[in-house]
Design a protein that fits this description.
With 441 residues, the protein is α/β, with parallel strands linked by helices. Helices cover 43% and strands 18% of the residues. Strand 6, helix 7 and strand 7 form a beta-alpha-beta unit. Helix 1 crosses helix 14 and helix 6 packs across helix 13.
């Protein structure tokens, strides 16, 4: 008697986030045409650390948290990348973000590779003292993998300047000397840089201003929706609002609000930061009054008919399910990986211009680089100097990527990855590839 073998599913398994991220390499290499072994090297992270972090809780109990640090590449210099505290942190996510950082640093011409770290935790459930213990415990766990010349962390989701200050202090204790350059995004008083607080948003803002000049936009006629009203989303909305752009929709993790006439963004920021809730208000001094607005979901915000859509929350919000419903004319990726690779060609065919994350949100890592330079030289810059150097770099790289996209009739993302890939390849291939060594026989 024989038993029938169960039939296997005909559809392929969903790719992991890291596998999805790597698909951008293949598309970019059709333009960049680098050595095959360069592509193979970039597919593999250089170093991965996983640690268990014991934390004594306020109630006397001990809990253990899992932390990661991934150094994807250091071929162009020390790795650079944030540390996020979030319940959904995974090794797959950390590897993907480290890969994106390698590309991002190359896109804007920084002498860095890519790194990323994270801890599986909901920091909102921790007291401030528990958060400090966790932050210091993380550094004790990964200190051998980080350093000013090795891997330089920075803040990310649910971490901030205070957390970076704790981490820098803990590393300095372990190193036996004050080491401000080990971490960026620190408080100004501990060696942080002026201009770091809004750098991610400001970099994207400078790109929008380049597009404004190219396309003859009148700011008062341009509508903007921002998904994610955290640090980057708030500053991006504020900078554009100050220039007269119409911010018609914003959202946080609980949902969003829409107002066709636009919002007074400083009022939204004030009430959000005071109450931790997003409300449609207009404030005069300390007095705030509610204004008429429609409650919408995050999904509805993504599908609004606006000129600029800025996903500023987490990755993977524009996917196969909703890619055909995106009506925005321009998508500015303030978050890392908000558009899945499967959605890119559909958006391009539909005439949606996507300013990719590795360019759009590179202002943060650029000013982190400025901070690192200032820490190492002891020469601290005025705010105007930081802004001027950031604007010049963002405009220069936007122009270079725009030229590649037009020449090859390619999406901006593919052009950006090709731009990064050429720079990464130059460093990798400088020490020789198969072609070099085989020719010397």
């Amino acid at each position: 008697m024989t038993t029938a073998t169960p039939s296997l599913p005909t559809h392929a398994a969903e790719p992991s986030l890291y596998e999805d991220a790597l698909t951008r390499l293949d598309a970019a290499n059709k333009i960049a045409q680098v050595e095959p072994e360069t592509i193979e090297q970039l597919r593999r992270p250089t170093h991965i650390t996983e640690v268990s972090i014991p934390v004594r809780m306020d109630d006397g109990s001990r809990q253990y948290f899992t932390g990661y640090r991934c150094r994807h590449s250091d071929v162009r210099g020390p790795a650079k990348g944030g540390i996020r505290f979030h319940p959904d942190v995974s090794l797959d996510e950390v590897k993907s973000l480290a890969f994106w950082m390698s590309c991002k640093c190359a896109v804007v011409g920084l002498p860095y590779g890519g790194g990323k770290g994270g801890v599986i935790v909901d920091p909102r459930e921790l007291s401030r003292m528990e958060l400090e213990r966790l932050s210091r415990g993380y550094v004790r766990g990964v200190h051998a993998a980080i350093g000013p010349d090795t891997d330089v962390p920075a803040p990310d989701v649910y971490t901030n300047a205070t957390v970076m200050g704790w981490m820098m202090d803990e590393y300095s204790t372990l190193a036996g000397k004050r080491t401000p350059a080990v971490i960026t995004g620190k408080p100004i008083e501990l060696g942080g840089s002026l201009g770091r607080d809004d750098a991610t948003a400001r970099g994207a803002y400078y790109i929008v201003k380049e597009m404004e000049r190219d396309q003859g936009w009148k700011p008062g006629e341009i509508t903007v929706a921002v998904q994610g009203f955290g640090n980057a989303g708030q500053h991006f909305a504020r900078l554009l609002h100050d220039d007269g752009y119409k911010i018609v929709a914003v959202s946080d993790s609980r949902g969003g609000i829409y107002r066709e006439a636009g919002f007074d963004v400083p009022s939204l920021i004030k009430i959000k930061n005071e109450s931790r809730r997003l409300k449609a208000v207009y404030c005069e001094g300390s007095v705030c009054e509610e204004v008429d607005a429609k409650q919408i979901s995050n999904e509805e915000l993504l599908e609004l008919d606006v000129d600029i859509l800025a996903p500023a929350a987490l990755e993977g919000v524009i996917t196969q399910e909703n890619m055909g419903d995106i009506k925005a004319k321009t998508v500015v990726e303030l978050a890392n990986g908000p558009v899945a690779s499967i959605a890119d060609p559909v958006l391009f065919e539909n005439g949606v211009k996507v300013i990719p994350d590795i360019l759009a949100n590179a202002g943060g890592v650029t000013v982190s680089y400025f901070e690192w330079v200032q820490n190492r030289t002891g020469d601290y810059w005025e705010l105007e100097t930081v802004h001027e150097r950031l604007q010049r770099r963002m405009a220069r790289e936007f122009r270079a990527i725009e030229a590649i996209a037009k020449k090859h009739k390619a999406p901006m993302r593919t052009a950006a990855y090709a731009h990064a890939l050429k720079r990464l390849a130059s460093a990798i291939e400088a020490t020789g590839t198969q072609r070099y060594f085989a020719s010397g026989r």
